[in-house]
Each structure stands twice: as structure tokens, then as C-alpha cells.
């Protein structure tokens, strides 16, 4: 009779180094985010050509952008619970397939109205891809390296945007604006084939849903020296029933969920406010367009590098304090920026710190949410945190236009924009206190409700 040794999935992942299997999984998640990033920003590259093709004004094109943002928000809310119910792999493949097919379909739009509808549907897939890529990556990360490994994945979004910028002028000049959308669909569809063959399902998800033989097969690929016939995989969480969304608001999780939602909303409100309006606002202070564009690029660089830097620090100090401190530094830098644009060195430093403490800290928030929720609700928790952020992004995009229309002084606008960042810092500090006061594992809370 074979005596099986009981091993939890987390202890198995934590007690060994990174295998080639795990590294490949991270690379696939990164490629998902690269294609997501390209398709998220592609409209910005083809907007001038769209205006000419449809003889449309900027106001007439605005719903096309708005539909995409709205689709991103809805997709986050929908695909998170689907991943907790049907699996990370299937949901990720479905999300990538959706935005790939519909991006190609968008190239054959015959009217603005048709393009609005197709960009909304494309946004659904885009909104579902990012949070589930983060979730799967977290579930294959050792706890000691979680933030260091997962945070750089956020650079995939930036890499996709950079790739779009590099090919836009050549493709549009040779083949028209449609080529950008076709490329934005062809790459994800090719990736779907790769994902179907090589992307693994989450071991934690498999054990949660009593598919232990599949989890043991993955375990053998990570650690061939361990015999699956002598191992019984378990979770350090009790099982839970019911809707994953309902789990987020149960006792023991409710307060943390509200803190995370508020953080996501406030952070992405400012990220998109600055992403859409920063160059114009800098010009309003008297800085030439060329210099204003470079300053905006520095801010975006801070977004990308900030994710990597904060991820490194989060594994070496209290991660809540790292993220909250980054938000707080960004709030101070942003509030002061409108008063120091005449001092280039200080202004550039302030913008870089703002980038680190907004976009970079938002990536940190996603990692905090993945660590806060149990397996049965993890994808939903990460996705709904990002979904609330997507709602904030819509608000942030609108607020900039309203403040400019009201002719607010530029320094005042930057000061107002710093307030949501400060609120995000307070919320992350609040989450830290909440976790100290609710030390029970979330799984225990769920199992007893």
C-alpha cells in the first residue's frame, strides 16, 4: 500500500526555485499583455486616418474611444468570475480570441456607429485578459518573489503600445488604417494557438475543483523528482460555495475589498487623466509642444519602470507601505508640479515620481489584491479591482475636459488631480490595518459564512 504525502500547492511552489515551466508560463502571460496593450491604444494611432476616412470631427470620434473604455470596464467585471468558475486558461484563451477576432472585424467597419459597437465588444476581451494574466502569474509565483516576478508583466502593456507606435506610420502609409487593426487581431489569434498548447491551468484552481490528477501532472513537469503517485495535493484554504462576487463582500473580506476598489478607482482616474491631458496641460504653462511631449514620455516611463521598482521593493519590505508610500510621493509631486514647470530639473523629477507612484503603484495594487483573496475568488477580486479602476479611467478622461472647458488655472488642475492619489495612499494604509485586524485566512472566513 502506497502512503501518500499531503502537500499544499502553495508550499510546493514556495519550497523550490523557478522552473523552466513556470518561466514559460510567465512569458506567455507577458505576451498576452503585449497584445492587450497594442489593441488598447491602437485607436490613438489611427485616429487621424479615421477622421479623414469617415469625414468625422473629433467630437464624432469620441464615442469610439469611450466605447472601448466602457468595454474594458465591463470585461473586467465579467471575466473575473468566469475565470473563478471555469478556469484561468479557458477564460484567458476566450478573452484573447474575442479581442483578436473583433479587432480584425473592426477593420471592415463601414460607419462610425459600427466601429463604436465593435470597439465595445473588443474592449470586453481586453478587459478580461489583463486581470486573469496577473492572477495566473501570481498562482505560479513563490510568495517570496511574487511582486518581483509579477510586476514586470505590466511592462507588457507598455511594450504593446511602443510596438504600435513603431509600426504605425509604416503600416498606415502603405496599407491604410485598417492594417493596424488587422495586425492587432492577427497577433492575438496566433497567440491563441500557442496558449492552447502551452499555457497551463492554475494548480490551485485544479485542486479547488477536484481535478487533482491534472494538478499532479503539472507538478511533475515543475518538479520531475517528485512522484505524483506518492503525493496528495491540497490547499491551505477551506472550500467555499456560491458566487465569487458574493465572496468579495463576505465578512473578513468586505473591508479589504472596499479599500482595494477605492484604490483602483482613484489610481486609474489619475493615470488616464494624465495620459489624455498631460501634454496639453504642460503646454498651457508655456512649455513648447516638443518639450511637453518629452515630459509626457518621461511620465509614461515612470509608469513602466515604477512597476518593476515597486515590485522589487514589495518583496523586501511591507508591500502595503511600499505602495502607499509611492502613492503619497506621487500626490506631493503632482500637487507641486504646476508650480515648478519653470524649473526643468525639478519638473522632470516630479513627473517621473508621479509616474512611478500612479501607474507603477496601480500594478502594485493588483498584486496586493491577488495576495488578499483566496483561490475561489482570486480572479474575481483582481478583475473587479481593475474594473473599478476602469470606471475611474472613464471619469478621469472626462474630468480633464471639464476642467479645461471651465478655464481652471493649470496649477489648480494639477493640485486637484493629486487628491485622488492621496486618497489611494490612505486606502492602501487602511488595507494594511484591516489585514492586521483580520488575521484569519480568507478561506476560513468563507467556509464558515
Automatic annotation (TrEMBL):
<dbReference type="Pfam" id="PF07690">
    <property type="entry name" value="MFS_1"/>
</dbReference>
<feature type="transmembrane region" description="Helical">
    <location>
        <begin position="258"/>
        <end position="282"/>
    </location>
</feature>
<dbReference type="InterPro" id="IPR005829">
    <property type="entry name" value="Sugar_transporter_CS"/>
</dbReference>
<feature type="transmembrane region" description="Helical">
    <location>
        <begin position="62"/>
        <end position="83"/>
    </location>
</feature>
<feature type="transmembrane region" description="Helical">
    <location>
        <begin position="321"/>
        <end position="340"/>
    </location>
</feature>
<keyword id="KW-0472">Membrane</keyword>
<feature type="transmembrane region" description="Helical">
    <location>
        <begin position="90"/>
        <end position="108"/>
    </location>
</feature>
<feature type="transmembrane region" description="Helical">
    <location>
        <begin position="26"/>
        <end position="50"/>
    </location>
</feature>
<dbReference type="InterPro" id="IPR011701">
    <property type="entry name" value="MFS"/>
</dbReference>
<dbReference type="GO" id="GO:0046943">
    <property type="term" value="F:carboxylic acid transmembrane transporter activity"/>
</dbReference>
<feature type="domain" description="Major facilitator superfamily (MFS) profile">
    <location>
        <begin position="25"/>
        <end position="436"/>
    </location>
</feature>
<feature type="transmembrane region" description="Helical">
    <location>
        <begin position="179"/>
        <end position="199"/>
    </location>
</feature>
<keyword id="KW-0812">Transmembrane</keyword>
<feature type="transmembrane region" description="Helical">
    <location>
        <begin position="114"/>
        <end position="137"/>
    </location>
</feature>
<feature type="transmembrane region" description="Helical">
    <location>
        <begin position="411"/>
        <end position="434"/>
    </location>
</feature>
<feature type="transmembrane region" description="Helical">
    <location>
        <begin position="149"/>
        <end position="173"/>
    </location>
</feature>
<protein>
    <submittedName>
        <fullName>MFS transporter</fullName>
    </submittedName>
</protein>
<keyword id="KW-1133">Transmembrane helix</keyword>
<feature type="transmembrane region" description="Helical">
    <location>
        <begin position="294"/>
        <end position="314"/>
    </location>
</feature>
<dbReference type="InterPro" id="IPR020846">
    <property type="entry name" value="MFS_dom"/>
</dbReference>
<dbReference type="InterPro" id="IPR036259">
    <property type="entry name" value="MFS_trans_sf"/>
</dbReference>
<dbReference type="GO" id="GO:0005886">
    <property type="term" value="C:plasma membrane"/>
</dbReference>
<feature type="transmembrane region" description="Helical">
    <location>
        <begin position="346"/>
        <end position="370"/>
    </location>
</feature>
<feature type="transmembrane region" description="Helical">
    <location>
        <begin position="382"/>
        <end position="405"/>
    </location>
</feature>
Amino acid at each position: 500500500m502506497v502512503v501518500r504525502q499531503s502537500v499544499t500547492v502553495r508550499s510546493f511552489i514556495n519550497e523550490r526555485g523557478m522552473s523552466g515551466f513556470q518561466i514559460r508560463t510567465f512569458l506567455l502571460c507577458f505576451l498576452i499583455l503585449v497584445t492587450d496593450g497594442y489593441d488598447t491604444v491602437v485607436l490613438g494611432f489611427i485616429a487621424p486616418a479615421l477622421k479623414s476616412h469617415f469625414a468625422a470631427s473629433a467630437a464624432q470620434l469620441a464615442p469610439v474611444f469611450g466605447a472601448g473604455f466602457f468595454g474594458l470596464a465591463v470585461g473586467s467585471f465579467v471575466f473575473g468570475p468566469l475565470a473563478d468558475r471555469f478556469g484561468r486558461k479557458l477564460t484567458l484563451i476566450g478573452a484573447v480570441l474575442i479581442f483578436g477576432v473583433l479587432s480584425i472585424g473592426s477593420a471592415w467597419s463601414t460607419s462610425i456607429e459600427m466601429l463604436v459597437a465593435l470597439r465595445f465588444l473588443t474592449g470586453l476581451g481586453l478587459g478580461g485578459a489583463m486581470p486573469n494574466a496577473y492572477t495566473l502569474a501570481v498562482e505560479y509565483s513563490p510568495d517570496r518573489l511574487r511582486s518581483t516576478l509579477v510586476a514586470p508583466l505590466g511592462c507588457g502593456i507598455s511594450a504593446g503600445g511602443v510596438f504600435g507606435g513603431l509600426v504605425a506610420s509604416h503600416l498606415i502609409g502603405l496599407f491604410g488604417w485598417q492594417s493596424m487593426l488587422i495586425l492587432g487581431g492577427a497577433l492575438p489569434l496566433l497567440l491563441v494557438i500557442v496558449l492552447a498548447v502551452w499555457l497551463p491551468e492554475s494548480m490551485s484552481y485544479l485542486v479547488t475543483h477536484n481535478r487533482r490528477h491534472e494538478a499532479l501532472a503539472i507538478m511533475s513537469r515543475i518538479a520531475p523528482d517528485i512522484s505524483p503517485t506518492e503525493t496528495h495535493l491540497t490547499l491551505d484554504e477551506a472550500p467555499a460555495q456560491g458566487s465569487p462576487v458574493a465572496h468579495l463582500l463576505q465578512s473578513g473580506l468586505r473591508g479589504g475589498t472596499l479599500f482595494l476598489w477605492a484604490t483602483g478607482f482613484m489610481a486609474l482616474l489619475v493615470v488616464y487623466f494624465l495620459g489624455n491631458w498631460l501634454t496639453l496641460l504642460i503646454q498651457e504653462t508655456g512649455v513648447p509642444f516638443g518639450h511637453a511631449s518629452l515630459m509626457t514620455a518621461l511620465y509614461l516611463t515612470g509608469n513602466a519602470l515604477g512597476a518593476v521598482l515597486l515590485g522589487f521593493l514589495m518583496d523586501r519590505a511591507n508591500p502595503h507601505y511600499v505602495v502607499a508610500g509611492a502613492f503619497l510621493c506621487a500626490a506631493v509631486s503632482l500637487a507641486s508640479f504646476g508650480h515648478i514647470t519653470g524649473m526643468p530639473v525639478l519638473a522632470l523629477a516630479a513627473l517621473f515620481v508621479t509616474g512611478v507612484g500612479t501607474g507603477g503603484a496601480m500594478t502594485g495594487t493588483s498584486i496586493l489584491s491577488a495576495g488578499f483573496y483566496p483561490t475561489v475568488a482570486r480572479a474575481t477580486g483582481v478583475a473587479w479591482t481593475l474594473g473599478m479602476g476602469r470606471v475611474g479611467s472613464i471619469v478621469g478622461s472626462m474630468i480633464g475636459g471639464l476642467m479645461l472647458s471651465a478655464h481652471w488655472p493649470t496649477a489648480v488642475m494639477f493640485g486637484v488631480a493629486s487628491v485622488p492619489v492621496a486618497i489611494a495612499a490612505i486606502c492602501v494604509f487602511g488595507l494594511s490595518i484591516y489585514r492586521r485586524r483580520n488575521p484569519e485566512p480568507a478561506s476560513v472566513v468563507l467556509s464558515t459564512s
